[in-house]
Amino acid sequence: MNALTEAMDRAMGAQKAGRLDEAVALYGQVLAAQPNNLFASHNLGVVKLAQGRLAEAERLIARAAAAYPGHPELARSVRDLGLALFRAGFWESAGPWLERALGHDPRDAEVRSAAGRARPREYLSPEAFDAVSGRILHRAPPRESGSYFYAIDVVGTCNLKCPTCPVGNFTTANRPKGLMALETFERILDKIARESVAPKPEIWLFSWGEPLLHPDLPRMISMINAMGFESHLSSNLNIKKGLDAVMAARPTSFKVSISGLSPETYSRTHARGNIELVLGNMRELRRLLDANGNQTRVWVGHHVYKSNRHEVQAMADLCSELGFPHHPLPAFFQPLEKLVAIAEGLEPPPPIMEDLLEHPVNYLARFKSVRRRDLDCELRFNQTAINFDGSVSLCCSVYDAPNMLGVRFLDEPHEAIEARKYRHSFCGKCMSLGLHYAASDLYAFDKATGRAS
Asked: How far apart are CA 52 and CA 90, in angstroms?
């Protein structure tokens, strides 16, 4: 047995045993002597994939796949690579691999679902002209929603004052408060139906406000459902009545927005909130679903901070008991105006940022380095944000008056409202800082996170 054969055998043994760093070194020795050894290249790619080094994994597996496109042993690697890229949010890179995996097994439900989300949307123009930068931008398949969506803030206020939300941290903003009139809501739905931007748009009954504060919320949900649209809610569940009527209207989905699980952790990040009331309402949701055969998808968006991350498992256990999907999400600071001011050095980071898993100063720098500048922002091409008074926001991430579009949704057609977004100067500032909602570059991301090698 020569030295290279021995190194190859040792590399495969280390890979099988899970000694990934050792396997990387040994496969590297083989490829240094035999750069065209596609077997070693493929295996090294599989190891890199297991290490989360997605860009390197793709490059290495692609070499083998190009040489042996129909090889049955590559089918597993192609599938795993496509799904790993998709789960990490690199849909543009994942798409071709997922389609290739479907060629191997068209019945694979997980791959078929991922490939469907990663494909371009027929209702969207593939490109858009950015009037501020003077460039043509490409539109990626939207992540936030499978269809075009309208974020309608039916309640222009909230019962809590969370420090990472503008309701709690931007009290000087020039923003009116109130409830959307039912007649206005009905006319907005009629216009959405007439314009038919997408075959089945989604209606999100929230943005910065707490929708369960609206006395007519059950009627609004019923109106949405009657039109064949999807209705989505997000609530802090700090309410004492009305939950039964809301669930009886059968919204499509209901997100429970929660942070800490104890009074000490919860009161810090959901200021003015009562965790015992929330937990009681979560159990009430379970009871209402079971009693009425309700198919509403209830899930828990768990905002994780340094101060509550020790409670993640306990929250997961509670969600398992209740039968609600548990999604632990790193807490994020908003609104966009504040993030831009911090990125430009015009405003100091507030104390709550020290409790975030990643300090905004760090992720602002990372966003700028990895955001793809050739892609359009999803928050302007796949959504319209409507305030309680019927006026339109630039997007769902802004809060202050200068970033409203100065037009009511009912007064202008979809195309004119979209054109206003593309002329707004704040969009240019946001994109120049890499804060726009767009995909990251796979290779830049690997490099920025130290995953490239």
From this structure: 13
Distances from the Cα of 319 to the Cα of 11, 154, 281, 282, 302, angstroms? 42, 28, 13, 9, 10
Look at residues 307, 315, 396 and name the one whose alpha carbon lies nearest to residue 352. Answer: 307
Query: How far apart are alpha carbons 199 and 410 in whole angstroms?
Result: 20
- Say yes or no: domain 3-118 is CATH 3.10.20.70: no
Dig out the tokens for 51 from the structure.
């290490």
Dig out the tokens for 371 from the structure: 């955001």
144 CB-side CA count, 13 A: 20
Q: Domain boundaries in the chain?
A: 3-118, 149-297+332-448
CB 327 within 8 A of CB 338: no
Which distant-in-sequence residues (6+ apart) come within 8 Å of 289 by Cβ? 247, 296, 298
Note the pLDDT tens digit of each residue in 10-57: 999 999 999 999 999 999 999 999 998 999 999 999 999 999 999 999
User: Per the structure block, which two tokens stand in for 442?
Assistant: 């796979």
DSSP string of 85-134, one letter each residue: HHHTT-HHHHHHHHHHHHHH-TT-HHHHHHHHHHSPPTTS-SEEEETTTT
Nearest to 301 by CA among 330, 272, 263: 330
Q: How does DSSP classify residue 135?
A: E
pTM for the model stands at 0.91
